[in-house]
Design goal:
Layout (H helix, E strand, L loop, with lengths): L3 E8 L3 E9 L6 E9 L3 H9 L6 E6 L3 H13 L3 E4 L6 E2 L9 H12 L6 E8 L2 E9 L5 E10 L1 H11 L19 H29 L6 E5 L4 H11 L3 E3 L3 H11 L3
Parallel strand pairs: 1-4, 4-5, 6-9, 7-10, 10-11
Antiparallel strand pairs: 1-2, 2-3, 7-8, 8-9
Helix pairs in contact: 3-7, 4-5, 5-6
Length: about 260
């Protein structure tokens, strides 16, 4: 049987991304990121991907405005794709108010579990973008997948903009290049607060969430994803070594696998 191929579309707060998931029976899934875009260029880019002819199926996840999600859904269908909109991630949600949990968090957890060997798996997922989310999930020996919850913090760009917006006398600043914790200027101090603070938050959230969800870090895989993951990758690699798995498209992997189950 040929590999199943699904165009996955993830609409974030400030833009979106698309990937192509391929999975042959009995083989591990693979995901190829095919593009990212801003909201302004969304329709043009998605039309290009839909007309590339690499698949006739798509899966859509969105965290933003419902009218934008509906518009993208119509565009994909108009281009001849069969669209699975927000397919069930296949996770038990051990949460209070599970209906408020973002689909992107659930798909990232599903993707992380898919990358672990069959059987029991315990994971922490760190997704750094507009926000930084740190979540815990498990897979039992019988295949049951459970999302246990986590934390949501500001992503680096959002944090930087918030500081400049609320501080009347604080200058705008960028986040590029090396950073020291000891800022020698106001922009340097702001960069230190955002970047070094983000690193520290990631490390502490992983440690404490692993302790509360899994009883500690032993035997726990830490998966890192998201467009701004490079801000914390070195620090997490230093903390977790071989237990850290870096993947650019966990949301797309989980979204594609969820869609594949209903085809």
């Amino acid at each position: 049987m040929d590999a199943q191929r699904i165009l996955t579309v993830d609409l974030g707060n400030s833009g979106g991304s698309a990937a192509l998931l391929s999975q042959a029976p009995g083989a591990a899934p693979s995901v190829e990121v095919v593009g990212c875009w801003s909201v302004a260029e969304e329709e043009v880019r998605l039309t290009e991907f839909a007309r590339a002819g690499r698949t006739t199926a798509a899966a859509l996840s969105a965290v933003g405005a419902l009218d934008r999600e509906a518009r993208v859904h119509r565009l994909l269908e108009d281009e001849g794709l069969v669209v699975a909109q927000r397919p069930d991630p296949g996770l038990e949600l051990r949460l209070t108010g599970p209906e408020t949990c973002g689909a992107d968090r659930q798909y990232a957890a599903r993707g992380a579990l898919a990358l672990e060997r069959a059987g029991l798996a315990r994971v922490i997922v760190v997704d750094v973008g507009t926000a930084m989310t740190v979540d815990a999930a498990t897979r039992e020996e019988d295949g049951t997948r459970t999302f246990l919850g986590g934390a949501i913090a500001l992503g680096p760009g959002t944090h930087a903009r918030a500081l400049s917006d609320v501080g009347a006398r604080l200058p705008e600043f960028d986040l590029e290049g090396p950073v020291a914790a000891l800022g020698r200027s106001t922009p340097g101090a702001l960069r230190a607060g955002v970047i070094v603070g983000l690193e520290g938050a990631a490390v502490e959230l992983v440690r404490r969430i692993a302790g509360e969800a899994h009883g500690g870090l032993e035997g726990v895989a830490v998966h890192l994803t998201g467009g701004a993951r490079h801000f914390v990758e070195a620090r997490l690699a230093g903390e977790h070594g071989a237990a850290l798995r870096v993947h650019p498209a966990l949301v797309h992997l989980g979204l594609g696998q969820a869609a594949a189950e209903i085809r």
